[in-house]
Amino acid sequence: MVFVGLDAHQGLYVATILDPANERVKQFKVKSSLDKFIVTLRKHLHDRPCRICFEASCDYGHLYDRLKEVAQQVVVAHPGKLRLIYADKRKNDKIDAFKLAKLLYAELVPQVHVPDEVVRSWRRTIELRTTLVHKRTRAKVSQRALLRGCGISMPKKLWSKAGLAWLSTVTLPTPADALHRDLLLDELEHFDGQIKRATRYLDGVGSQHPGVWLLRTIPGVGPRTSEAVMAYIDRPHRFRRNNQIGAYFGLVPCQDQSAGRNRLGHITREGPATVRALLVEAAWWGVRHDPTLKAYFEKRCGKNGARKKIAIVATAHYLARVMLAMLKSGEVWRPAA
User: 42 pLDDT exceeds 80?
Assistant: First the structure.
């Protein structure tokens, strides 16, 4: 068994091969396509079994699938946690590849879970819809700013059919302002159509997934929250303990503990921001409509209500733990007695 550290870029691959005695066998660079790199790697391996390690990047899933054709095991390293293990003043592609091979040999690689292509595509679609919603919100904010800048009072329901009809006919001070208004309306209509297409697709995927339906039994958890949580959890049993899900979604506080001192700061905000935001939104709805979540929130909020933000994040963390437990057991939501 040999160990291969790979520093991969678009059109550039630098690899280091170590033998079981932890000696550098070969280091080579391929400035071409991934197919060419795999052919070159096979030549250097000489049919020897190998393990490969590389850092996660935007295309790590495709690279992982292709390298599995060559290696007995492919390990994807968490780039943020790698820096904590192997900090160095000197950094280049060859050094990085050598370090990855050494860490792989020493079994010190902080691994990243790699879902299959279907789940990766599902995640990308969820993030795409979130991006489209943000773009639509930006168009709405720009439209309101334009009207305020022109000194025009707006109806309360500006984005209803009646409000949009009023907006399209309202008289603006200059032709430039009218052009600005029309372009923003076109943009808003365009994003509405794209969001509807993405939503229809996601609804179709979620309707066929039992985990999505299971999570929707929780008060405040709708289709968008349940599908996002399910897509990013992927395999519930890969989490040995339910409280690990909080760290995965970045809902736990930063900690600086030494001897008798223990300082807790803001939440880490690691993991997918989309899921974290949806969990907080679901927590707010649940606190207003479900006695169990309301009691959990109020217990952590305090009597004076000064800890509302901390309490709602704690409630979102609680929701995440409950979701993981439900996915592991297959049981629906059960309110506390």
Answer: yes
Q: What is the 3-state secondary structure (H, E, C) of 188-218?
A: HHHHHHHHHHHHHHHHHHHHCCHHHHHHCCC
- pLDDT value, residue 80: 85
Average pLDDT over residues 16-31: 86
Query: What are the boundaries of each domain within the chain?
Result: 2-105, 117-208, 213-329
Of the candidates 137, 84, 97, which has an alpha carbon nearest to the alpha carbon of residue 13?
97
Strand ranges for 179-296 from DSSP E: 253-258, 261-267
pLDDT, mean over the chain: 93
Question: Long-range CB contacts (< 8 A, 24+ apart) of 257-263?
Answer: none
* C-alpha distance from residue 317 to each of 50, 246, 278 (Å): 40, 6, 12
The tens digit of pLDDT for each residue in 58-79 reads: 889 999 999 999 999 999 999 8
- The per-residue DSSP string of 163-179 comes to HHHHHHH---SSHHHHH
**What is the rounded distance in angstroms from the CA atom of residue 215 to the CA atom of residue 260?**
40
Task: Give CA–CA dist 193/205, Å, rounded.
Answer: 19
Determine the pLDDT at residue 40. Answer: 95
Q: Are 186 and 180 in contact (CB under 8 A)?
A: no
**CA 108/CA 175 separation, integer angstroms:** 64
Kindly state which CATH superfamily the domain 2-105 is placed in.
ATPase, nucleotide binding domain (3.30.420.40)
* pTM for the full predicted model: 0.91
